[in-house]
Amino acid sequence: MKCSKMLVTGGCGFIGSNFIRYILEKWPECKIINLDKLTYAGNPDNLKDLESNHNYDFIQGDICQYELVNELMSSVDQVVHFAAESHVDRSIEDGDVFVKTNVLGTHTLLRCALENKIDRFIHVSTDEVYGSIKEGSFTETDILKPSSPYSSSKASSDLLALSYYTTYGLPVIVTRCTNNFGPYQYPEKLIPLFITNLMDDKKVPIYGTGLNVRDWIYVEDHCAGIDFVRQWGKEGEIYNIGGGSELTNLDITYRILEALGKDESMVQYVEDRRGHDYRYSLDCTKLKQLGWQPEHDFDSSIKKTIQWYMDNRWWWEKLKQ
Ligand code: NAD
Predict the structure, then answer these.
(1) Active site residue 127
(2) pLDDT tier at 4, thresholds 50, 70, 90
(3) Which CATH architecture has domain 183-214+245-275+296-320?
(4) Which atom of ligand 1 sits closest to the CA of residue 86?
């Protein structure tokens, strides 16, 4: 499915900015409007290189603003929705803004998408909605059991999006992806936090035992997966997107320590996160059968990512101050 004009929400964040760059390179005829509120996590520096690109427009605004959203939707044919409050620890401190943006904001987008007869609405979600799993992997039909206010708000928005397909026939597709890493990730998240701390000879904090397991995907693969689903996915369906690299937090830490020439003395164990899920794991057979799987392996991508943070101190240093 070709795209002539796309509204991307949250395009100044980590994955949204990588996605916009990916689409503009892959589909030179596609025009993008990026609607982003510029919260602490939204950073215009992430797309500095696109300022003079004629196919790209930036609008600062909130996805909860009905009139603005409705006006923007009248000029596009597809929507890819990334905008969210995304940090679990912040949601544990105060879930209010998570409900506002992730639930009410998504609902505003869905309403406007319906009113403007949008051709495709991709709702970008997370593996965290399924909750923790000791053994095996979640498929798209498993029940949702989110643990944090963040994942509960995302689960709510997934259900709203799917209900707009069932009730009104809005062509919605939901993607649920595992943990992303790569360039332009806000340095409060594990991988960029650890890389940048170690570069500054600061210790890295590990929750509990460090044995919690996550599946990791290089951000470019996530962007490619979303674009694939946008073209070939079926309306009203959910697609899991995973990287196929399950690792404990300690595994990741040792790899980063080694790459930066540091030792275990830089690790500081801290009190575990409340409600900390033990393991996330996705079964991605459905997407594989549709014809897509990730291309990047963890080891070479983490090296590339470390190098990017080493080469781009200008980008992250001011965010950490
Ligand atoms: P991020 O926190 O880096 O970026 C979020 C962006 O949304 C920011 O630019 C922010 O300014 C914008 N935003 C927040 N509230 C807004 C509002 N009310 N109106 C308009 N813009 C607003 O997040 P991310 O890591 O890039 O994640 C993007 C999406 O992908 C989220 O929906 C998240 O749930 C999902 N996801 C993330 C991961 C991951 O590992 N990071 C994994 C799976 C799914």
Answers:
(1) yes
(2) confident
(3) Alpha-Beta Complex (3.90)
(4) 2
